[in-house]
Amino acid sequence: MTSLDVLAGTARAGTLYGIGVGPGDVRYLTLRAAGLVRAVDVVAFFAKKGLQGNARRIVAPLMTGAQTEARLEYPVTEEVPADSADYRHQIGTFYRETAERLASLLRQGKSVGLLAEGDPFFYGSFMHMWRRLASDFPVEVVPGVTGMSGCWTRAQTPITWGDDMLAVLPGTLGEHQLIERLRLTDAAVIMKVGRNLAKVRRAVEQAGLLSRAIYVERVVPLADCTDSRGAYFGMVLIPGEGRRI
Ligand SMILES: C[S@@+](CC[C@H](N)C(=O)[O-])C[C@H]1O[C@@H](n2cnc3c(N)ncnc32)[C@H](O)[C@@H]1O
């Protein structure tokens, strides 16, 4: 394989690609992901109502104009609680209809690249399509740099040392559950902070970890962050303090 072959993307007809596009900058895509974005017939991406879609924004420099775009717009996101029957119904219907839409493209022989922020198999909507389509169509999943590694890199903070245990916790957990899990771990990443920021902050404080916790949206100590709500992409990092040689 020559150096030019490495950069060229090839996509097979009728194949679904889950393309990890990393944490936010097109330069953090793998070569395979970048090649595929250019090579597939259809670039599909999830987006919130009225927004461009973060994954689509990340790959903008790779769009050639030759790809067709399939915008998959969520009917709801944060405005309805994720554990409500209404949310499950609306999102369940949306995922079923979206999988049918993608299946129809695949049956026509199109290669479809479904973009995923970060890594496709890490809390990704892509997984809901993969679950519905992988037994009927060929699928290739291209890993991506996760949002959390983007965050600890941006915060210039190593997350685990020596034998540190790392817990990855969704901020949607109940306060008590968060405290319990935090007490058992050496290092933690708390995702999906958004509207849960105040609760997450209280849980981190109760677990005795506030002095070490960093809120990454602006990269500030969590202790200085008194807002009740954070950004959807906000994340809390609690670096481990394990063996340093
Ligand atoms: C549905 S999950 C998607 C995770 C994604 N697949 C990944 O590999 O990071 C969404 C949560 O991931 C985190 N996240 C995803 N991308 C991020 C980014 N670029 N910067 C910061 N946090 C991110 C945020 O906590 C957000 O609430």
Name the poorly predicted regions: none
Radius of gyration: 20 Å
User: What distance lies between the first and last C-alpha atoms, to the nearest angstrom?
Assistant: 41 Å
| Series of H and E elements | HEHEHEHEHEHEHEHEEE
Task: Tell me what you see in this structure.
With 245 residues, the chain is α/β, with parallel strands linked by helices. The chain is built from eight helices and ten strands. The protein has helices at residues 3-7, 31-39, 54-58, 85-107, 126-133, 147-154, 175-184, 197-206; strands at 16-20, 42-47, 68-73, 112-116, 139-142, 166-170, 187-191, 214-216, 220-221, 235-238. Helix 4 packs across helix 5 and helix 7 packs across helix 8. The longest helix has 23 residues, at 85-107.
Short description:
This protein has helices at 3-7, 31-39, 54-58, 85-107, 126-133, 147-154, 175-184, 197-206; strands spanning 16-20, 42-47, 68-73, 112-116, 139-142, 166-170, 187-191, 214-216, 220-221, 235-238.
